[in-house]
Every structure is written in C-alpha cells, then in structure tokens.
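User: structure tokens for CC033 protein, please.
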Amino acid sequence: GAARPGAARLSPALLCPQSLSAGMAVAGALVLARSVRMTTKFKSALDIPVEFVEKNVKLRGKLHHITEKGLEVEHIPISIPFLTLMQRKWQSQGLLLVRLAGVELAPGGLAWLRQELKPRQTIWFQLLGREDLALECLVLVNKGRFLSVCLNEELLRQGLGRTARIEGLHHESRLYWKLHKRLLRAELKALKKNKGIWKEESYSERIRDRISNNRFVQTLKQFVSWLRGS
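Assistant: Done. Predicted tokens:
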C-alpha cells in the first residue's frame, strides 16, 4: 500500500544491522589506533609521529642523564590499564635525546643543570622540532603543586646561557617569535642584574688582574721563587 503522509523515508543502509556493526567497528578501530599512539612508549626521536611535533605536543619523561648533547629522557606514556599492560610485553627500552630549544649553554650551565635536577626526576618536554635525531623542546619542571619552571628561560635568567635560534621551528612563524621574545626577556634580566656570563668585574678585580698580568710583576715573582729555591 501507499506510504502514510509525513512518514520518514529511511535508507535501507541505516536499517541494516550489518552496516551499523561495520560502522561501529571502524569507529572503534580508529579510537583504538589513537589510544595505541597515545600510550606508545617512544624510545627514539624517529618513533614520535610527525603530527605530534607539528602540534607541539607536551610529553612526560623520566630524566636519566645530563650530557653536553642534551638530556637523556625515558618517555612515560599515558597509561590505560588493559592496553598499557599488553604493550609493555613488546615495547623495548630506549632514551630520547632532549635539547633545550633556543639556548646556547655557557660553561656553567651544565653544572647548574646537574645541581638543580635530580636523578630519575619527572619532567615535561614540549615538542618544538626534531633535528639530528634529537628533540628541540621547552623543558618544564614542577616546583610545587601549581608551579612549574621552564628550564630554557631559567638558564637565561641565571646568566648561564645565551639566546640562540630555535631549531625545528620556522623562523617566520608566530610561535617562533613568541618563544624567542620570552627567551630574550629572560636573558635581559640576567644582563641587568650582572648575573652569570654578564657579571662585570669590579674595579678592584680589574686592577688586580692588570697587576698579575704585568710583565715586571711576573718577573719579580719568578725571582722570588728562585731565591726561595736556592
């Protein structure tokens, strides 16, 4: 018979249980794939998806070593009880090389990092770029429940480094200049306070250095040493 007026026409595909099940399966597979990527333990810079770097994703890690090349960090992925337990069986170990983006360390910078950071300490690192198998990042350390410190800026505020190009970010991008300004402000604070590499010698220190470097004084010291030896 003819259809009743006002009755909605439903597509046969929507009425088919098989089509509905297939659609749910595809959606479930996409959710699972996304979950696997978020819970995957990255053991190398190349393991990290390109879109993670492009979207400047923030990751969590455990500090292992502080070297001249950067921080060696063990990635701590998001934990989903059942999925994480399965992944642990086949995930291998490996450390990520994390560099402090936009900072050229001064000689005392490495020692300061080793003093401030504790072994196995948890840190956060925000991805900015990937260069030479290393990750260029903003590194954050919790200093309390509601307080975190950006090591990139803190090193510059202490006068233990100089602002450098942020590798991995396009130098004309808005994010590049936003971060670069932050680093320059931190460096300027150290310069104004004469801290670290920006510390100026006092007048007495300059006089003492000039006297110690004077040839006559050096010759006199050698003569005194010769007298004592004889």
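User: Anything notable?

Assistant: The radius of gyration is 29 Å.
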